[in-house]
């Protein structure tokens, strides 16, 4: 058995031994206690997940380009003549067509959970996060609360597909070794109880519904949303999360985000979230960037090919986020019939093809102390924030400066036994890695260990492939499991 396999076995043992320790902890219903819960290691190792926005909004499958199509109901509710959302609705469905009438049209007649799960496995994703319900309140599982408070069949088992879509997907993805969780919106735009009595909505609808869906499907990850209208005290989030961590069937492995009240983002909960942004700068706290392949989470038939990021760009985004210690939750928006748009399938398979070869430099890695190596030149400013931050990564990567502007030449990740350098394309010979601390007994791969230079090096020139244009990982092997990673770069 080689060293790599021995080390992997050690990781599995440590994870198994850690479970009862976490399970033994009892958390109090206050942020001071809840925030001390460590983020489960599986999430830090996974790096890449798939978000799925699918609901009644998938029936019109339309939005103003640049906006979220899953907000169709909310956007078309403004009946002003100059509202393009209302204009589209009237033109295609008529003024008297109520949004609820989309429910029987949401049939998912071509949905095949096994087919979806096969695609997800081939994409290289390690976890799946479909919407259990979005802000429209329509549930993809047999939620009694949904139909009761809406006063009509308002879940996928009682109307439309008449199938437990969430349950079918949970079974299929877990059979392929993927982690399964879901998105859950705390509020619902037009739920009659929400509009009339918010405290009752929380206690009589949201909390029992949340406990029901968690108890049914035991999610490994919970993406909460729709929290911004109330503080966490009014949502009773602390009590709800104490139940989740102490009593729920998924208490040992569940990962949560930070959307539990308007006072919570980047302050309380689990990992920090960013949305159509640039992620965060480093790994000082676990985080995840979520975004679609174009401008919307839900499918938008108005988006064209040029609105979609290329496979190469999505791969580079994944690499860049992982190099800074984060995860990528990449969204797809299935059609109402249960098919995934072919362009989305293609993009996922392109990412999977790259990860199949280079996943060692992504899965299970951690922030290396410095995320990348810049070329000479003036470095462009990259802002960071929670929502809609300009992030044009392809303008920031390359091998040579552009018009005096520096670009990211190499991305770094690390494991206890190795340091990885991933180049933004074939760099030519030689590639100089600056400020890399190489222990005396380190070996440069793929060169044999006995041929490696010894000692500390400020510049490191690794061997590389003869051809290829994709991002290329370089593994720096450390024979004794000691690696102090990437030193802080000395600026000229």
Layout of SSEs?
Blueprint (H helix, E strand, L loop, with lengths): L2 H22 L6 H4 L6 H6 L1 E5 L19 H5 L7 H9 L20 H11 L3 E7 L10 H7 L14 H11 L3 E2 L1 E4 L6 H5 L1 H20 L3 E5 L6 H4 L1 H10 L8 E2 L15 E4 L11 E5 L19 H13 L3 E6 L9 H17 L13 E3 L33 E8 L2 E6 L9 E2 L7 E3 L14 E2 L11 E7 L14
Parallel strand pairs: 1-2, 1-9, 2-3, 2-4, 4-5, 5-6, 7-8, 8-9
Antiparallel strand pairs: 10-11, 11-12, 12-16, 13-15, 14-16
Helix pairs in contact: 6-8, 6-14, 7-10, 13-14
Q: Short summary of the structure?
A:
The protein has 492 residues and is an alpha/beta fold.
Judging by the overall fold, what is the CATH architecture of the largest domain? Answer: Alpha-Beta Barrel
Round the mean pLDDT to the nearest integer and report it: 88
What's the structural domain tally? 2
Distance between the termini: 45 Å
Q: Which fold does the CATH topology of the largest domain refer to?
A: TIM Barrel
CATH class of the largest domain: Alpha Beta
How much strand? 5-15%
Report the uncertain regions. 1-23, 447-469, 477-485, 487-492
> How many alpha or pi helices?
14
Q: What is the helical fraction, as a range of percent?
A: 25-40%
Largest sheet, if any?
9 strands, parallel
What is the 3D shape? globular
Helix-and-strand structural type: alpha/beta
């Amino acid at each position: 058995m080689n060293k790599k396999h021995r080390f992997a076995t050690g990781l599995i043992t440590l994870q198994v031994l850690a479970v009862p320790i976490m399970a033994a902890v009892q958390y109090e219903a206050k942020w001071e206690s809840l925030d001390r819960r460590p983020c489960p290691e599986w999430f830090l190792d996974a790096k890449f997940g798939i978000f799925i926005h699918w609901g009644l909004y998938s029936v019109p499958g339309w939005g103003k380009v640049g906006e979220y199509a899953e907000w169709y109901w909310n956007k078309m509710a403004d009946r002003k003549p100059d509202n393009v959302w209302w204009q589209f609705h009237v033109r295609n469905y008529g003024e008297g067509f109520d949004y609820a009438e989309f429910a029987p049209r949401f049939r998912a007649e071509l949905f095949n959970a096994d087919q979806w799960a096969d695609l997800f496995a081939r994409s290289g994703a390690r976890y799946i996060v479909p919407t259990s319900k979005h802000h429209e309140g329509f549930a993809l599982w047999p939620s009694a609360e949904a139909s009761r408070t809406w006063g009509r069949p308002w879940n996928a088992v009682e109307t439309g597909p008449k199938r437990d879509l969430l349950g079918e997907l949970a079974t299929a993805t877990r059979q392929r070794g993927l982690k399964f969780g879901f998105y859950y919106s705390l509020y619902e735009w037009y739920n009659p109880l929400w509009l009339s009595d918010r405290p009752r909505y929380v206690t009589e609808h949201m909390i029992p519904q949340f406990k029901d869906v968690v108890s049914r499907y035991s999610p490994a990850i919970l993406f909460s949303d729709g929290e911004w209208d109330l503080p966490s005290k009014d949502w009773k989030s602390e009590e709800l999360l104490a139940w989740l961590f102490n009593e729920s069937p998924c208490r040992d492995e569940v990962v949560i985000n930070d959307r539990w009240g308007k006072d919570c983002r980047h302050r309380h909960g689990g990992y920090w979230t960013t949305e159509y942004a640039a992620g965060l700068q480093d790994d000082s706290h676990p985080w995840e960037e979520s975004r679609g392949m174009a401008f919307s989470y839900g499918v938008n038939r108005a988006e064209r090919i040029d609105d979609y990021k290329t496979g190469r760009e999505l791969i580079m985004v994944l690499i860049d986020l992982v190099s800074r210690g984060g995860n990528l939750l990449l969204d797809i928006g299935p059609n109402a019939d249960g098919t995934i748009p072919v362009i989305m399938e293609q993009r996922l398979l392109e990412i999977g093809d790259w990860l199949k070869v280079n996943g060692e430099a992504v899965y299970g890695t951690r922030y290396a102390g410095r995320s990348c190596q810049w070329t000479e030149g003036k470095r462009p400013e990259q802002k960071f924030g929670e929502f809609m931050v300009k992030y044009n990564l392809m303008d920031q990567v390359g091998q040579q400066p552009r018009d005096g502007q520096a670009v990211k030449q190499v991305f770094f990740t690390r494991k206890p036994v190795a340091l990885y350098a991933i180049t933004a394309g074939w760099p030519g010979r030689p590639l100089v890695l600056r400020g890399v601390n190489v222990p005396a007994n380190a070996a440069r791969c793929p060169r044999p260990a006995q041929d490696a230079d010894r000692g500390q090096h400020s510049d490191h020139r690794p061997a590389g492939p003869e051809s290829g244009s994709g991002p290329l990982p370089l593994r720096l092997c450390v024979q004794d499991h000691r690696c102090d990673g990437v030193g802080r770069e000395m600026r000229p």
